[in-house]
């Protein structure tokens, strides 16, 4: 027997329709690439998005066609999110911080028909013009007054965004199709091999947005103002351009200026209550607040993901500025959010120090998302907060295969549909998961495992250390030993022995690293993660004093 309820396909376009109808007066504020602030409402956004949908159809973009974007967080990018998927095409967000050859590979592997690009990213496409022969045209995301001359016009059709949509009607009937239709495409920014495409559907995107905006996860309501610092080209800004309109909240789009001074001004001017970003961004903001004496006047919480958040950041915002950290974890393959660290009853009685230490954990699974930890033989480990192993997951917004994948002929899931994240983790009795390392970054010393993440977090807790990376170096007796590469804070005089002494009493003596080297800066991936492959190559010949 089937239930007698209406059946309706889950469409991304329905989010914007809802926001415009129920929260039409709510604002989207953007720091424009051309300068200044742009303001309009959800009602305005819907009209312009329908103009864009008409324009895409006029360009010949059809169901299943990939349309690439190279753009910052702004209102035009928001319009592309909804117009492209709304007509049944695929919104392919491209990370402009990747190496140029990776960008070219991604454009060609995806088979993008058109590319939309922000003004200050245009030089990247100009350099890549000979390497994207299948692209039919490039739309520059600006108005006629700011439209530049570009050598791209020699090889590709070049169009001004505002001219493209300006003559189109503000009416468009969003089509309804199978909710499993492809809607978005993001590529991983892995450190080895070519980036891999993850193809999201309308169904997976809506279910993920529902989960992200639940009260116990990242509470967003119509009275909130949310600033996604995490870029819209990085796994859909963690779903916030969908979740916030779904809830009717105000969106603050920061553009490309993400330094502490600009973020502080935007947050205070627009009364931001919640923001999201990676630890490196929040470290810069924390340092600016300390140096300037300014405060975040309305911010209640900062969501942190993309890499493990050091205790120093959690304590700094909590103790000094009264801002709560919401620690989370996810991957491109997960749309991307899998867990967030929301409290359970009884935790209000924790001391401040206990609460901050608890916030180091990446959190509990969102409803609909499953995870488990297994040993090397695939046996599930107990949820005791101590037993660690490979972290596996599955759920309706977890990928089942990579797009046009020729490297995994046997697929990427096991026989029971579990996806191996490549992370090593523990899960405690209350369901809180904590990443202890990436599989490839664990250090095996004398048959025992050492977490590089734990050693890095301790290092950056030192007042003289800005950032640190820990890698394994070979050792004749212990097989591998930990080695620290650190960046000092400006004016700090911490030396090798001082940093090694700082570890004492915080971990077992045998886990303390064998050596430290100081550098001016550490290499990062395009999404802000430590690029340890480069460090392993650079320090491959470094000899540990204990060896």
The tally of structural domains comes to 3
**DSSP, total strands:** 25
Shape: globular
Strands of the widest sheet, in order across it, are: 2-1-11-10-12-13-14-15-16
Whole-angstrom Rg:
24 Å
Strand content: 15-25%
Biggest sheet, open or closed, and with what strands and sense?
9 strands, mixed
Q: Give the name of the CATH superfamily of the largest domain.
A: ANL, N-terminal domain
Total number of helical segments?
A: 15
Report on this model:
The chain has 547 residues and is of the alpha/beta class. It folds into three domains: 13-256, ANL, N-terminal domain (Rossmann fold); 365-439, Luciferase, Domain 3 (Luciferase, domain 3, Roll), CATH 2.30.38.10; 442-538, 2-Layer Sandwich (GMP Synthetase, Chain A, domain 3). Helix content is 27%, strand content 23%. It is built from 15 helices and 25 strands. The strands form five sheets. A nine-stranded mixed beta sheet has the order 2-1-11-10-12-13-14-15-16, with helices on both faces. The protein has a seven-stranded mixed beta sheet with strand order 7-6-5-3-4-8-9, with helices on both faces. The protein has a four-stranded antiparallel beta sheet with strand order 17-18-19-20. Strand 14 and strand 15 (337-340) form a beta hairpin. The chain is globular and about 70 Å long. The mean pLDDT is 94.
């Amino acid at each position: 027997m089937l239930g007698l309820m209406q059946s309706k396909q889950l469409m991304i376009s329905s989010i914007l329709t809802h926001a415009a109808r129920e929260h039409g007066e709510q604002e989207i504020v953007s720091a424009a690439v051309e300068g200044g602030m742009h303001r309009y409402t959800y009602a305005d956004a819907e009209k312009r998005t329908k103009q864009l949908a008409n324009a895409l159809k006029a360009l010949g973009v059809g169901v299943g066609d990939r349309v690439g974007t190279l753009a910052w967080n702004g209102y035009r990018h928001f319009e592309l999110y909804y117009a492209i998927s709304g007509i049944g095409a695929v919104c392919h967000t491209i990370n402009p911080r990747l190496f140029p050859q990776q960008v070219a590979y991604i454009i060609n592997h995806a088979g993008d028909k058109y590319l939309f690009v922000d003004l200050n990213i245009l030089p990247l496409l100009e350099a890549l013009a000979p390497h994207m022969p299948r692209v039919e045209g490039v739309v520059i995301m600006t108005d006629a007054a700011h439209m530049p001359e570009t050598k791209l016009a020699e090889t590709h059709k070049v169009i001004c965004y505002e001219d493209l949509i300006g003559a189109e009607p503000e009416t468009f009937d969003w089509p309804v199709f199978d909710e499993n239709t492809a809607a978005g495409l993001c590529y991983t920014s892995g450190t080895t091999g070519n980036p891999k495409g993850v193809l999201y559907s309308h169904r997976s995107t809506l279910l993920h947005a529902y989960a992200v905006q639940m009260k116990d996860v990242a509470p967003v309501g119509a009275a909130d103002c949310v600033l996604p610092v995490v870029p819209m080209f990085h796994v859909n800004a963690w779903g916030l351009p969908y979740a916030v309109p779904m809830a009717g909240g105000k969106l603050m789009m920061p553009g490309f200026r993400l330094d502490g001074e600009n973020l502080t001004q935007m947050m205070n001017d627009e009364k931001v209550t919640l923001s999201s970003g990676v630890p490196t961004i929040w470290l810069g903001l924390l340092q600016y607040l300390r140096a300037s004496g300014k405060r975040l006047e309305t911010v209640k919480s900062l969501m942190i993901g993309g890499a493990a958040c050091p205790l120093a950041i959690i304590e700094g915002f909590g103790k000094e500025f009264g801002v709560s950290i919401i620690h989370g974890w996810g991957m491109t393959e997960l749309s991307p959010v899998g867990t967030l660290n929301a409290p359970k009853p009884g935790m209000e009685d924790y001391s401040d120090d206990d609460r901050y230490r608890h916030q180091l954990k990446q959190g509990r699974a969102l409803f609909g998302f499953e995870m488990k930890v297994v040993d090397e033989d695939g046996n599930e480990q107990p949820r005791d907060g101590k037993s660690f192993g490979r972290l596996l997951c599955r759920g309706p917004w977890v990928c089942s295969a990579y797009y046009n994948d020729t490297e995994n002929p046997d697929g990427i899931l096991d026989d029971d549909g579990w996806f191996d994240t490549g992370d090593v983790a523990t899960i405690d009795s209350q369901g809180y998961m904590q990443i202890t390392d990436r599989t490839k970054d664990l250090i095996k010393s004398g048959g025992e495992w050492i977490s590089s993440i734990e050693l890095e977090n301790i290092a950056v807790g030192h007042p003289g250390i800005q950032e640190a990376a820990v890698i394994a170096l070979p050792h004749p007796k212990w097989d591998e030993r930990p080695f620290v590469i650190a960046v000092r804070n400006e004016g700090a005089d911490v030396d090798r022995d001082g940093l090694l002494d700082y570890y004492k009493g915080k971990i077992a003596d045998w886990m303390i690293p064998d050596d430290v080297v100081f550098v001016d800066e550490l290499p990062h991936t395009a999404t802000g993660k430590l690029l340890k492959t480069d460090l392993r190559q650079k320090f491959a010949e470094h000899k540990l004093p204990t060896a």
